[in-house]
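Minutes, project check-in
Item: structure for the 110-residue chain
Input as provided by the requester:
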Amino acid sequence: MTFVVGENCIKCKHTDCVEVCPVDCFYEGPNMLVINPDECIDCALCEPECPVDAIYADDELPDDQSEFLELNEELAEKWEVITEMKEALPDAEEWAGKPNKREYLEKDWP
């Protein structure tokens, strides 16, 4: 089992979860974070830290977000590891909880 960052992280990118991860398995993109499933040790420390409830155990991932399991794996290969907490995106509160944010996911990261 692994944990997965889902759609609600898009355009929010809170990093509270990064601070508690004992294995540094979070990767940062332009407007969201992902978890590398090969590095996640299923400790469950990150899930309660997310202020927008964007982290799920893979077996609890909502059906309409199943693609995020594959996206987390794919994007963790492209993005850089993040190990320290940063400020959330400036308009994170405005985007928190909004549905259908998948179209806003930015995959290219310098």
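Outcome recorded: Residues 84 and 106 are 21 Å apart (CA to CA).
No further action items on this chain.
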